[in-house]
Amino acid sequence: MDIDATIESSQYLHLEHGGEGLAPSFRLEPRPLREKLIASNPIADEHRFLFRQIMTGTDEGIALVMEHERAIVAAALAQPRYAQRVLDVLDVRVDYDFRRQGLGTVMIYNLIQRAREMELRAVAVETRTNNFPASQFLLKSSFDIAGIDTRRHSNHDMVKESATLFWYAALD
Questions:
Q1: How far is Cα 11 from Cα 29, in angstroms, rounded to an integer?
Q2: Which domain holds residue 64?
Q3: Cα–Cα distance between 109 and 82 in angstroms, integer?
């Protein structure tokens, strides 16, 4: 699946961290980037593998694709976590040439509907603070920020202006 999911943005979410111990505080605000971000966003190997597993029925989950003229132009991947009653959206990508046509919105709302049918309580997504377009998309799709991890990828993410954001769309 070769979808050009390049991330392009002139903004990021700046994270200010305060407080200490059991009273931490976080503040996010959009800020301009020093230079425009244009970053390749290839599908992770584990997601590519999981996509195949779900499509062949070997693993449980939801794999959605949209085609245009026999080429895949959008895809979404999600797996239920029944113990937590949450549908984890692992990947949503739309080819660069097909953005802003509602394909991502259709896929995320399809996943939300499927989570409701599965009687789950929420849909969860992770993004990074440097992927401003994804954050805007999730806000527009009724997701709320539920948590922040400043060390998920390294202990220096705050310096690199990139922390992990946890988003939830509550279904109840």
A1: 10
A2: 7-170
A3: 20
